[in-house]
Specification:
The protein is α+β, with helices and mostly antiparallel strands. The chain is 33% helix and 23% strand. It is built from nine helices and twelve strands. The strands form three sheets. A six-stranded mixed β-sheet has the order 8-10-7-11-9-12. Strands 3-6-4-5 form a four-stranded mixed β-sheet. Strands 1-2 form a two-stranded antiparallel sheet. It is globular. The protein starts with 7 loop residues before the first helix and ends in a 20-residue tail after the last strand. The structure holds adenosine-5'-diphosphate and magnesium ion.
């Protein structure tokens, strides 16, 4: 990428190097490849996530939030496997060299990377329409990765945190934009849920050995639960009343709030199977992590997902979840 102001290599040097040290990293930014040395007895867990300007984020969204969310979404996949981050690769396509944007982007991504020990150890920088692709590399003790398969009939369906908050945050942002309102403060709750999600790395790590099955909720509870059910060859029954709704849904009509909790994406909470006889252990885990872990139903032998209301009647479901390629 040539530019009158900043060359590709100056840009990499300035914004994307110097944050590449950590356990297991033999060689970071600057050579043809990064070199990693995972601990003996561990497997590598690798995943990539792409965010495209206009599809996954607003063109005028603060760059720090873009950097944070691109990394958070990718790290959430490591959390869902019970893996701990070793490092990340950033493939970024930029329309130009807006230094203020790049600085804020690198800071937003860098702060989360530092907090969750996921140093930036390489990448690729090209010119074109703005898009950000983050590859995460993690390690997990051999055989202990949390997969989508492995849920058994009788296991509890458990979810972390609360659901629907990202969807509510996105709605609030759309309404604000339509009304031409001022951008919210960074610490605004509705803003935080959609723009600054928190990958549940500590929870994923703590789940290892207790369960074999987890997924992160990126497309929506029902859609992601369906992935577990398909991979595990089972079904599930959920109790609508027990699904933890984000406080941001407090003022919403009941049906709309339930739908947001069931189908709103981007919450990045973890959904997992848990042995029914270990409810006490689940409470211990939740208090240790200071994160709500809520039993919302049970895996069943019969295929399909049923959601029951307070009287035990099935709720009719509309939206299954987000699908980039769904015909509208
Ligand atoms: P090559 O041409 O050998 O693929 P590059 O010239 O693309 O290497 O990159 C030079 C070095 O800078 C490599 O170590 C690469 O990993 C790193 N790098 C390039 N872009 C980024 C980026 N956006 N973030 C972090 N590291 C990057
Ligand atoms: Mg090379």
């Amino acid at each position: 990428m040539a530019d009158a102001h900043l060359s590709e290599f100056e840009l990499i040097e300035r914004f994307f190097s110097g944050r590449d040290r950590g356990p297991g990293i033999v060689l970071g930014v600057g050579d043809d490849c990064t070199l990693l040395s995972p601990r003996p007895g561990h497997q590598l867990a690798v995943s990539v996530d792409t965010m495209v300007c206009g599809t996954h984020f607003f063109p005028d969204q603060p760059a720090a939030a873009v950097g944070h969310k691109a990394l958070a979404a990718a790290l959430s996949d490591l959390a869902a496997m019970g893996a701990e981050p070793l490092g990340t690769l950033l493939a970024i396509t930029l329309p130009g060299t807006d230094e203020a944007w790049l600085m804020a982007f690198a800071e937003g991504m860098g702060a989360l990377a530092e907090r969750l020990r996921a140093p930036l150890i390489g990448g690729d920088t090209t010119r074109g329409p703005l898009a950000v692709s983050v590859t995460v590399i993690g390690e997990v003790p051999a055989g202990l990765a949390l997969r989508r398969s492995g849920a058994e009939p009788g296991n509890l369906v458990v979810v972390s945190g609360s659901l629907g908050g990202a969807f509510a945050g996105l709605q609030a942002e759309r309404e604000r934009r339509e009304a031409g309102g001022k951008p919210p403060a960074v610490q605004d709750a509705s803003h935080r849920r959609f723009f600054w999600p928190e990958p549940r790395i500590a929870l994923g790590r703590a789940l290892r050995g207790h369960t074999r099955t987890a997924i992160d909720i990126s497309d929506g509870l029902l859609a992601d639960l369906a992935h577990i059910c398909t991979a595990s060859g089972c079904g599930a029954t959920l109790e609508a009343e027990s699904i933890p709704r984000d406080p941001l849904l407090a003022g919403w009509a009941d049906a709309a709030a339930l739908s947001a909790a069931l189908s709103g994406g981007d919450d990045y909470e973890l959904l997992f199977a848990w042995p029914a006889r270990q409810r006490t252990e689940l409470r211990v885990l939740a208090s240790g992590l200071q994160l709500p872990l809520t039993v919302i139903g049970e895996f069943r032998r019969e295929p399909g997902i049923r959601v029951l209301d307070a009287t035990g009647q099935p709720v009719t479901l509309a939206e299954p979840g987000f699908d980039h390629f769904r015909a509208d």
